[in-house]
Amino acid sequence: MNFSMNGKGKKEEENVNYLVDCIKEGNEEAFMTVIRLYQKQVFMLAYSFFRNREDALDIVQETFLRVHQKIHMFREGHNFLNWLLQMAKNLCIDTYRKNHGRKGDRFEETSLEDLYVDPVSKDAPIEDTGLEEIFSVCLKKLSKKQRLVFVLKQYNQLKYREIAQVLDIAPGTVKSLHFKAVRHLRGLVGPYLGR
């Protein structure tokens, strides 16, 4: 049996629901199709959280292991990608807290302005750096919450209300964080582009 995913919106949701039903019946090919479809979105979320490839890959692996174990908990009529990304976000927070002790609670309590932001080395040769790498460096300078919102909106193409569900914050907060992230990125990228 070949599972292919073509189409957007409602058709895509129907396809995902069909795949979920197949996984619930023990179909491993359907599960592998879900992994292929969504591993990039999970990786982007985890990478934006940890800024480390190995940690992000660990989260991807653990997320899909949890999906396989908890697929029967997914309720039809809900958005599968939101459910998946919520699971990945929770794993990111749990992993962060486990590796950083109870200090991990700071992530939830700290204001955006107080979160540590890596400085960019002034010695980095700009002419040897591609635009994608420059953008990646600038993206890392955003606060953790701004970066998460930006990645979910721009790379995972979620709506504000979907991001609010995934991050468990108000939609207005999501809009504000996205606005600040875009404004901050423009200011960071501008000097590299001669602005």
Q: If you had to describe this structure to a student in words, what would you say it looks like?
A:
The protein has 195 residues and is an all-alpha fold. It has two domains: 1-109, Rna Polymerase Sigma Factor, Chain: A; 111-195, Winged helix-like DNA-binding domain superfamily/Winged helix DNA-binding domain (Arc Repressor Mutant, subunit A), CATH 1.10.10. Helices cover 66% and strands 0% of the residues. Helix 2 crosses helix 4. Mean pLDDT is 78; it is low at 102-129.
Quick rundown:
The protein is mostly helical and 195 residues long. Helices cover 66% and strands 0% of the residues. It is built from nine helices and no strands.
Which helices and strands occur, and which strands form pairs?
Elements: H1 10-24, H2 28-50, H3 53-70, H4 80-99, H5 106-109, H6 131-140, H7 144-155, H8 160-167, H9 171-189
Helix pairs in contact: 1-2, 2-3, 2-4, 2-7, 3-4, 4-8, 7-9, 8-9
